[in-house]
Amino acid sequence: MSADLPTIKQMSGTTSTPTIMTPALTAAKRALRSTTKKSLSQLPAPLVQSQSQVCVKTLLSLPEYTAASRISVFLSMPQKEIDTSAIVEQSLNHGGAQKAIVNFACKRTAE
What we know:
Blueprint (H helix, E strand, L loop, with lengths): L7 H5 L10 H19 L3 H17 L1 H5 L2 E2 L13 H9 L6 E2 L10
Parallel strand pairs: 1-2
């Protein structure tokens, strides 16, 4: 990782102590991810697409979105996630002023 990337602590502006990942918590998170992945894999593609359209339509109609000059959008993966391509396309090509799409990575620290 690049040394000039912000840490999670710097981004959040907090100075609280990070959560300690106990073995039990790690196992619970792993089980939750597995259950969620299985549930998502069983969703029919038309349902995912229609829900994506509802989410995009809702986002694009928000005054916070229309007033924003920059947004951050995760690019969707084809594994039953919301399809964010319409958000990216709208932000770059439509609606008068273009929006800058800002994505960044951060590194974890042991602080």
